[in-house]
Amino acid sequence: MVVRDQLGRYSFRGKQSETDILGIAEDILQRRLERLGTMTSPDQSAQFLRMRLAHLPHEEFHAVWLDNRHRVLAIESLARGTIDGASIHPREVVKAALRWNAAAAIFSHNHPSGDPEPSAADRAITRQLKEALTLVEVRVLDHVVVGAAGTVSLAQRGWC
Predict the structure, then answer these.
(1) Residues 41-85: pLDDT tens digits?
(2) pLDDT tens digits, residue range 117-131?
(3) Exposed (0-12), middle (13-18) or buried (19+): which is 156, by Cβ within 10 Å?
(4) Which of 19, 26, 53, 88 could form a disulfide with 110 if both were Cys (CB 3.0 to 4.6 A apart)?
């Protein structure tokens, strides 16, 4: 069992599952992001998104919504799929961006296979989302693909 004290620190009691431990790690990273208030580097966002997505047995597509100063407004799951895909609809992504009044976004999804190499479909949806969000003046800063073997930033490869 995981116990959180009044100061927000965690301690372990009994047997812990991998899911419990990863949930605790995600919570710690989320609180760190909330303290910092911004996503300042691709490495920082990749580390957080890897903790959030790498362990999932199905594909999920997430967005980190940011304001003009790249302060985190929200982090949300936009789609849940199967072991080899999740359907992303640009219209729904634009609606979410407007709901949060976002100025920028970092997208991420996991590959349950463990291989973080972006597919042609990953590159295509990134292009579509970027085009759709440009119309409402929301910048797409990155799309991070997460696998057990690590992460790949489409922005670092010049594809975003």
Answers:
(1) 778 888 888 888 888 899 999 999 999 998 889 889 999 978 777
(2) 999 999 999 999 999
(3) middle
(4) 53
Give the CA distances from residue 82 to residues 56, 57, 74, 149, in Å, rounded to whole numbers and listed in that order.
10, 8, 24, 19
Position 1 in a domain: no
In a domain, 47, yes or no: yes
Gap between the Cα atoms of 55 and 19, Å rounded: 8
Q: What is the span of the domain harbouring residue 71?
A: 38-153
Quote the tokens at residue 133.
């969000």
Q: What is the CATH number of the domain that holds 142?
A: 3.40.140.10
Whole-model pTM? 0.77
What is the biggest distance separating any 2 CA atoms in the chain, rounded to whole angstroms?
A: 52
